[in-house]
C-alpha cells in the first residue's frame, strides 16, 4: 500500500474509531476493495489528513455537506465521529442552520433529527 493509504488508515481510525474501521474492513469484498482503497487514500489520506483546517471544522463541513446534498446515510457516522474531532453538538447545530438557509429547511430538519438521535445513543444530552 502507498504512504497515502497508510496515512488515510491512521486518520480514518483517529476520526471514526477502530471499531468502525475494523467492521468496515471485515465487510470488505473483492467488489468494493478498489472503492475502499480510493476513499482511504483520497478522503482520509488527502482531505482529512490536511492540516489546513482542524478536524473539528472538517466535521462541521462534512455534516453540513452531507445534509445539504441529501446524503443522510453517513450523517450518524459523522455525528459519532465528533467525539474524536472535537465538534460539539452546538457546532453541529450551527452548521445545520447554514444548511437550512443555503440548502433547505427540510434537509436541515432531517439532519437535525439524525443528530439528536445519534447524540442520544452516544449518551450526550442536547
From TrEMBL:
| Record domain Carboxymuconolactone decarboxylase-like: where | 34-117
Q: Which GO terms describe its molecular function?
A: 4-carboxymuconolactone decarboxylase activity; peroxiredoxin activity
Key words of the record: Lyase
Q: What is its EC number?
A: 4.1.1.44
Write down the Pfam families for this protein, in alphabetical order.
Answer: CMD (PF02627)
Highest taxon of the lineage: Bacteria
Lyase as a keyword of this entry, yes or no, is yes
Q: Does the keyword Cell membrane apply?
A: no
Q: Which NCBIfam families match?
A: decarb_PcaC
Task: State the name under which the record lists this protein.
Answer: 4-carboxymuconolactone decarboxylase
Q: State the encoding gene.
A: pcaC
